[in-house]
Structure formats: structure tokens, C-alpha cells
Write a structure and sequence with these properties.
Helices cover about 30% and strands about 20% of the residues. With about 240 residues, it is of the alpha/beta class. The protein has a nine-stranded mixed sheet with strand order 3-1-2-4-5-6-7-8-9. Bound molecules: iron/sulfur cluster. The site of iron/sulfur cluster (SF4) has 10 residues, from loops.
């Protein structure tokens, strides 16, 4: 859970690390690591993660506050080389919020050109227009419990491609569950785009969410945050 201080940080301070970047073509990167993909339909597969620095949101349950300010400026070439050296076909670009840095598009293109399966996890609070069409967008739609639902760019839902992209909702309570159901029932997610629901622990028990989904025959997939089951809140795994 985020501290009160982190949530109260003014927007210009949240974006300050990105303004300090010297080379606009480079990326401010928090960490690159290899682990098991913990979420999405790719869960369970070994995956290299590239985590960008900086996020303009402050979700109540955020577990990556270390990516808000810490980072090193890296060229796209050095990142492509590092991902290649890690030797996995699956790579996820995540954050922070990757789309806050326009140079991320060059990284995404480069990873696709290298023949990798590329996932982009984005908050839904920045437009996904212009993302390479080979990238699997995982749109993390913000719920009321996150405190950031007003920041959702609803146009992003219409841009999702069936069979390629996914919607993820992290639920804090029953209000969030009803929010997710309303989204599904109103068919605001294009048919063929998977919807994944997970519980923000410890706020909501995964067993409770599973019971609600079975009870209501929800047209969505339950997901456990597998990396947390395996390693808890440890960083870089
Ligand atoms: S969008 Fe992601 S990185 Fe940003 S505050 Fe929310 S959970 Fe954290």
C-alpha cells in the first residue's frame, strides 16, 4: 500500500525525474530483470521485464513505488542488447507508466523487430495511440478503489485488438468488483479481448473474488498475482 505522503505528492514532482532526462531519445529505466510472468494470459512463462521510471498516478495498492523516481538513463540500443543477452522470447515493458516517455515506442518497435513477443503494461491513463501493432497491450483499467479511476482514458478500450490485447482490473473491494462487472456487462471491452480480474491483497481475498465470479458466472478470467505468491513483495523478481 502506498503511504499518504506518496499519494499527496504534487503532479509536477511526480514527473520531475522525466524532465531531468538529458537525451530525449533515451529511456529512464528503473530496472531490467528476468522472472516468471505473474499476470496476463502469459502467466507462468519466463519473461524479461523492462521497468521504466516515473508514473503520474498514485494507486492505493501500488507495489512499485521504487519506480516513481529511481532510474538510470539508458539508450534503446543498450536495452535491446540486454534483453537479447537474457535470451528469452517473451519481454514485458512495464512501469511506472512506460507511455509517459515517447522514446518507449522505439524500444517496443526494436523488440518486435528482433522477433520477441512484446507485452506492454500500461495504466490506461495515457493514450495507447501509436503503439506498434505487434505489441500486446495489457490495459490496467483503474477502479474506484485505486483512487485513480477518473484518470482512465476510455478511448483506449476501443483501440484494443481482439486476440491480442487484454484488460486487467485490480480490485480492492466489492465496489470495484461491481465496477468491473459494469464494464463487462456494458460490453465496453471489445469482444475477443480477455478481461482479467485480480484481488489487491491484503485488501481483498482472492478466494472471495473467485466466489463472486463463480456465483455471477462472470465472463472474465480470475488471476492470482503469481509473482507475489512465489516471492511476496520482493523487488526484481
Ligand atoms: S499506474 Fe502502476 S505504477 Fe502507477 S501508481 Fe498505479 S500501480 Fe503504481
Amino acid at each position: 500500500m502506498l503511504s499518504k505522503d506518496a499519494r499527496a505528492e504534487p503532479t509536477d514532482e511526480r514527473l520531475a525525474p522525466l524532465k531531468r532526462k538529458r537525451d530525449p531519445a533515451a529511456l529512464l529505466i528503473n530496472e531490467v530483470f528476468t522472472s516468471i510472468q505473474g499476470e496476463s494470459s502469459f502467466a507462468g512463462l519466463p519473461c524479461t521485464f523492462v521497468r521504466t521510471t516515473g508514473c503520474h498516478l498514485r494507486c492505493a495498492y501500488c507495489d512499485t513505488a521504487h519506480a516513481f523516481h529511481e532510474g538510470t538513463e539508458r539508450t534503446i540500443g543498450s536495452l535491446l542488447d540486454e534483453v537479447s543477452a537474457r535470451g528469452l522470447p517473451l519481454v514485458e515493458v512495464t512501469g511506472g507508466e512506460p507511455l509517459l516517455q515517447p522514446s518507449v515506442h522505439a524500444l517496443l518497435r526494436g523488440l518486435c523487430d528482433a522477433g520477441r513477443t512484446v507485452l506492454l503494461e500500461t495504466s490506461g491513463a495515457v493514450s495507447t495511440a501509436g503503439v506498434d501493432e505487434r505489441v500486446h497491450v495489457i490495459l490496467d483499467v483503474k477502479t474506484p478503489g485505486s483512487g485513480e479511476a477518473a484518470r482512465n482514458h476510455h478511448d483506449n478500450l476501443a483501440r484494443l485488438v481482439p486476440g491480442r490485447d487484454e484488460v486487467k482490473l485490480v480490485l480492492c473491494d466489492e465496489v470495484d468488483y461491481r465496477f468491473a462487472r459494469a464494464l463487462i456487462d456494458a460490453r465496453r471491452v471489445p469482444p475477443g479481448v480477455a478481461v482479467l480480474l485480480s484481488a489487491a491483497q491484503p485488501l481483498l481475498s482472492p478466494a472471495m473474488l473467485a466466489e463472486w465470479m463463480v456465483r455471477d458466472r462472470v465472463d472474465a478470467r480470475f488471476q492470482l498475482q503469481l509473482h507475489k505468491v512465489l516471492w511476496g513483495e520482493r523487488r526484481g523478481v
